[in-house]
Structure formats: structure tokens, C-alpha cells
Amino acid sequence: MNSISHKTKQFLVLLVKLLIVGSAFYFIYDQLANNDQLDWLQFTAIFEKNQSVTGVGFILLLSVLNRYFEILKWQNLASHLQSISTFEATKQVLAALTAGVFTPNGVGEYAGKALYFDKKDTKKIIFLNLICNGIQMVLTVIFGMVGLLYFNYLFDIIPTLTVYCILFGLISFITLLCSIKKITIKGYSIEKLIQKINAIPKAIHQRNLFLGCCRYIVFSHQYYFLFLGFDVDLPYFTLMAAVTSVYFLASSLPSFQFLEFAVKGSVALFFFGILGVNEWIIIFVSTLMWFLNVVIPVIMGSFFVLNFKSSLIAPTET
Fold this sequence. Notes:
By secondary structure, the protein is an all-alpha fold. The chain has one domain (39-310). The chain has helices spanning 2-33, 40-50, 53-78, 86-99, 108-114, 122-155, 160-179, 190-199, 202-229, 236-251, 260-274, 279-306. It starts with a helix and ends in a 12-residue tail after the last helix.
């Protein structure tokens, strides 16, 4: 019976692995092959016109740096629990990305990383991953708010009174949270959360913040340089204001990783449309960002998912 149970577990784990990887490749193919908004002839024409080995290499380097900074962030935070190598952090980040590709806002990523650690540390790993992703969200909000305010100053898309009301609402919300931080709901409170955050050494937080800033600068400027590659000639600050606004608003919307380019693309169409950028260029740049920063890492992560060894399928001793 133990032998049958072990084989059954092996089969189920293999089935889950194949389902994750197979679904990932299917959705990637479906989005690239059946998207009517992608005009590959126009893309080929502009690419042949501006093709540059140096330019392509630079864009690919930014994709590597984007994911590398994320890997370093996770390695840094995981060191609070146990020291892991850069390769181990790479494996965990890419496998978790693949595992979370079909969950809203990548929630499955939390469980994906936790599987690499002892079961007793699951809550700690989920919390550390929350800190890892949380700092990126905070930076996205800060840079995004600044970019949105500057963009609104240039084009007045939101009435000034509405902007003031939003800012007042945010300040009121933060003040309310601070005033009720001691209130406990099912054993949890903001005060306890702050205590847990403060329990992590300050040096780890500082490094996390620095790496988060580096990652934000990299992927936001990758967006910027891709537009330059498609002959979009706009002032630097105007274009970057639109980029940061797109990331800010897109990150506020619930979505799945494999549909990320569609969400960001729809938001980008609004902002870059105001700037007079051709619609097909906006769609292509958003798709390329998705391909370079989600699709390629997911393909690499699929290898680690298929080679993942779970304690759940360890043979049961008689």
C-alpha cells in the first residue's frame, strides 16, 4: 500500500508540473499568435530599419538586470531565515513566477517559494515574500504618483479639485490606519505587523529598498528605450511620466501574469495615446515588455518546476 501511495503521489506531482508548464506555454502561444492588434509586418519593417546588435543586446541586458535585482532581493530577505546561494534564489524566484503565472496578481508565487523551505517556516517565507513584493509596490506607487501628477500638470486630464480630493483621501486613510493600529482582528493587527517588520535587521531592509529602486529604474527605462527604438521622439520627463503612470495604475488592477501585457497595454493606450504615439507601437512595446520580463523567465522557470523535488513524494517508511 505504501508503494502504491508513493507512486500515486509521484504521478499527481508530475501531473501538476506538466499542467503548470503546459498551460504556461499554451497561453504564451495563444496571446502571441491570436492577438489581432499585433501587426507583425509593421514590426518587421521598423526592426529592419533600426536593427542594431548593440541596441538589442542592451534591451536584453535590461531584462536580465530586472530579474537579477529581483533575485538579489529575495536572496537578501531569505537570509533572515537561512542563507541561500544566488543560484538557489534564482531557482526559487523563477519557479515561483511560473507557478504563480495563472493566479491573480501572482499570488501563487508565495506558495511556490514556500515549497522550497521546511513546512514549519511557511508563514515566515510568505511574510518575507510579502516584504519583497511590498517594497516594489510602494516604489511603484511613489514614482507613479509623482509621474501622474506631472502628467496631469502637462495635459490636465484630471480636474485639480479631483486631484486634491484623492490626496486628501489618501492622507485620511493613512491617518486612520495609524489610529487603529492596535485594534486586533483574529489575532492580527497593524501594530503586530510593524513589530514583525522591525524584527528584520535594518541592513536587510536598506538593501531591499536599494535593490527595489534599482529594479524599478531598470524596467521603467527599458520601457522608455523600447519607445525610442520605435522612433517615438518625446521629451524624457514627459515619456517617463507616462511610463510611471502606466505602471502605477496597471498595478492597481487585479490581473493574471499571463494577461499582464493586455492590462498594461490598455492603460498605456490611454496615456501614450494622449502623447500622440501610434496605437500599434504602444501595443508592440507593451507586448515586448511582457515577453522579455514574463515569458522568458517563465520558460526558464518551467525547467525548475519540472525538476522540483517535493518532500510530499518521499517514500513512506514501513
